[in-house]
Design goal:
Blueprint: E1 13-19, E2 25-31, H1 33-42, E3 46-49, E4 54-57, E5 66-73, E6 80-86, H2 122-132, H3 142-149, H4 151-170, H5 174-194, H6 199-209, H7 214-222
Parallel strand pairs: 1-6
Antiparallel strand pairs: 1-2, 3-4, 5-6
């Protein structure tokens, strides 16, 4: 049945993940052909991250693996259902059992997600929290207030923090250097979140540059 998926029509298909024992919906992700093949060959859920633009095995960092027990396709053969045994009791990066915990009432906005787990790097956790604060009340959330003010205000803060970091370095004050670098990193992540650019893509770009001299890297950009 899997070989009937038309990958020429859709190179990514939605994948609904459900706990095999109680039927609870845990998460929704996306799979390409390679992810499906890896899942079938290992019996462990693999997905394709649209924001990071790469393959990932669920639980590869946290240990919260998903052991696939059953696989179903929908009637149009373009959506997949995985019934899994969830290690660790949590499928969500926030540490919750399911990603679907934000109840939306008619007169209430979804609650902010505060808790995060150690399986994500600090930048990943902060980036996800910043993304979630887009839904918060600008009167009570600094990040939400920046998003409400718009691009110019966000970029103004990046420039401001870059200047303060530079002065801290110039003054050779280690405590202030650390403090201002943290401020600059935070506001840079806000700007990335505004454009929906995952910080992992920055990490991948830095990894690409390993082994290249600065001159070689600059020339490679000028030639593209």
């Amino acid at each position: 049945m899997i070989d009937k998926i038309d990958w020429t029509k859709n190179d990514l298909i939605p994948a609904i993940v459900q706990e095999s024992e109680n039927g609870k919906v845990l998460m929704l992700a996306y799979m390409n052909k390679e992810a499906v093949e890896l899942t079938l060959s290992t019996n462990l859920a693999h997905f394709y991250s649209r924001s990071r633009k790469k393959m990932w095995k669920k639980g590869e960092s946290s240990g919260n693996l998903q052991h696939v027990k059953e696989i179903y396709l929908d009637c149009d053969l373009d959506t997949i259902l995985l019934k899994v045994k969830q290690d660790g009791g949590c499928a969500c990066h926030t540490g919750r059992e399911s990603c679907f915990f934000n109840r939306v009432d008619i007169d209430e906005a979804p609650s902010e997600i505060i808790s995060q787990i150690d399986s994500y790097s600090t930048s990943d956790k902060l980036y996800h929290t910043i993304q979630e604060r887009k839904l918060a009340d600008p009167k009570t959330s600094y990040v939400a207030s920046l998003f409400k003010k718009g691009e110019n205000s966000i970029l103004k803060k990046v420039v401001e923090e870059a200047g303060e970091f530079s002065f801290a370095v110039k003054d050779n004050d280690e405590k202030e250097i650390i403090y201002e670098a943290a401020d600059l990193a935070f506001h840079t992540l806000v700007a990335l979140a505004y454009k929906n650019v995952n910080p992992d893509l920055i990490k991948q770009e830095l990894e690409r540059r390993f082994g290249l001299s600065g001159i070689e890297e600059k020339n490679s950009r000028e030639n593209t």
